[in-house]
Design a protein that fits this description.
Enzyme class (chains A, B): transferase
Oligomer: homodimer
Number of domains of chain A: 2
Helix content of chain A: 40-55%
Catalytic activity (chains A, B): [pyruvate, water dikinase]-phosphate + phosphate + H(+) = [pyruvate, water dikinase] + diphosphate; [pyruvate, water dikinase] + ADP = [pyruvate, water dikinase]-phosphate + AMP + H(+)
Order of helices and strands of chain A: EHEHEHEHHEHEHEHHEH
Shape of chain A: elongated
EC number (chains A, B): 2.7.11.33, 2.7.4.28
CATH topology of the largest domain in chain A: Rossmann fold
Pfam families (chains A, B): Kinase-PPPase
Strand order of the largest sheet of chain A: 2-1-3-4
Keywords (chains A, B): Kinase, Nucleotide-binding, Serine/threonine-protein kinase, Transferase
Largest interface: A-B, 76 and 76 residues
Structural class of chain A: alpha/beta
Number of helices of chain A: 10
Number of strands of chain A: 8
Strand content of chain A: 15-25%
Chain lengths: ~270, ~270
């Protein structure tokens, strides 16, 4: 049975997408959803066009689309509660109980969640991204002590995307530094990291998965061989254990799971929302 | 009046945070919220500890905390509806109408939204991040034609974070390429970009904001001077207009707004959710 989910918003649509995605992924086993995002629906003309598209989809599919919406404006929001669709609007449902408990009216201002409202937060985020970019893969040892956290692990374990996620989403200055065969030979963590031990967090991975990733990058290289991958992972984990560095295994964790677990375990606080 | 918002989840808590943040930012003018995320509440002990923390906070604040929760498990979810707090749970509210319309039961599986369920999607995301990292700031011209999009603009206009966001969140291979004084002198876009004109999207910025950002990076340099910034922005916009390249001004847009607007205007589709 084909179904369509619409994510509709007067602004970016990011909240509607995330809310809707969380909900429909609960039905993944039984229902296959086509996903359509309609962002920046902020004029009467765009409202009409969006409604026409939803109605047309209902006819094509032969069943009601699910519309996840986040309209602050009550009139616009009301327009999307149509018999041809099942509409679930976050504000419709949750703003009232919040207004009652808080004893104040909501501001009805669109774009608060993902706008540039707070310039200082925006700058914090930019600084974190710039920092993480320039401290990727041990790029610059200079200012490494400015890092909020330094992820360590073997090459291709998944340090970089996790750092970027921490920087972009949380405003955390996240550096990363490789553990290499030289370090295994010396039986010690890289010298540059010694004074920063309390900022280190390890990223490990299964040797099989590592070989697969390295193979995609450098086919049939020794670097990607099963033996080398196995040895590197074992030695890196040994070094981290000996040094008392906490580490996570990326093999079965998403970037979001890695990032949130690191935030949680280290007690770091978000700098931005 | 001090208030506390809790974001509570059996998994990452990302959906609860976004939902809650969207809602409470509607009350920003009147209520100042302390935000506490309690992720990975996945054992009876952690449930008890979280409930104790919420109750304690209610006593300290002298008013009810708002609890934004996303529990798939009905029993756990029910535990958080306590008289000492106002609890808003996304699944409690929205799963029922969805089950009714779809005619199937939800899977009640936690971690669907931000887990690694789909390995192929994860790989797409990693590839996009790697691509965008190695094609930052005109870094490699090689394989530039593999880009889904190439952001262009003067140095420090905000290309890099937007590219990284597109890669991480949407799995889009986003390169970026600077427009420099050399290009202004030649009255033309960089030669490497000529054959890729249909992939180009411009990022512009107000000269004042650009000077501020450049000044933070290289204090009192000519590069950061008001005159140079004004001239560069004017010339870059002129080049983009002449070449028919669409562009956005980052001065009043957040990274999310830039990214979603670019997706929307170009008609690119998310590769990952």
């Amino acid at each position: 049975m084909p179904r369509t989910a619409f994510f509709v918003s007067g602004r970016t649509g990011i909240t509607a997408e995330m809310l809707g995605h969380s909900l429909i992924s609960q039905f993944d086993d039984e229902v296959s959803f086509r996903r359509i995002t309609l962002p920046y629906i902020d004029t009467p003309e765009k409202v009409e066009a969006a409604l026409a598209q939803i109605r047309e989809q209902a006819r094509t599919d032969g069943c009601k689309p699910v519309v996840f919406s986040t309209f602050i404006n009550e009139e616009t929001r009301a327009r999307f509660f149509i018999p041809e669709a099942v509409t679930l609007d976050m504000f419709e449902t949750f703003i009232k109980p919040l207004e009652e408990e808080l004893g104040v009216q909501s501001s009805h201002t669109a774009g608060r969640a993902h706008g540039i409202a707070n310039f200082e937060e925006y700058q914090t985020r930019l600084d974190a991204v710039n920092y993480s970019m320039s401290h990727d893969d041990g790029g610059i040892s200079r200012n490494l002590s400015d890092a909020d956290i330094i992820l360590i692990g073997v090459s291709r374990a998944g340090k970089t995307p996790t750092c970027l996620y921490l920087a972009l989403q949380y405003g955390i200055k996240a550096a990363n530094y490789p553990i290499t065969p030289e370090d295994f030979a010396a039986h010690t963590l890289p010298r540059a990291l010694m004074p920063l031990r309390n900022k280190l967090f390890g990223i490990s991975i299964s040797p099989e998965r590592l070989a697969q990733i390295r193979h995609a990058r450098k086919p049939d290289s020794q670097y990607a061989s099963a033996e080398i991958c196995k040895r590197e992972v074992e030695e890196a984990e040994l070094l981290m254990r000996q040094a008392g560095i906490p580490f996570l295994n990326t093999t079965s964790l998403s970037i979001e799971e890695l990032a949130t677990t690191i935030m949680h375990r280290t007690g770091m606080k978000r700098r931005v929302y």
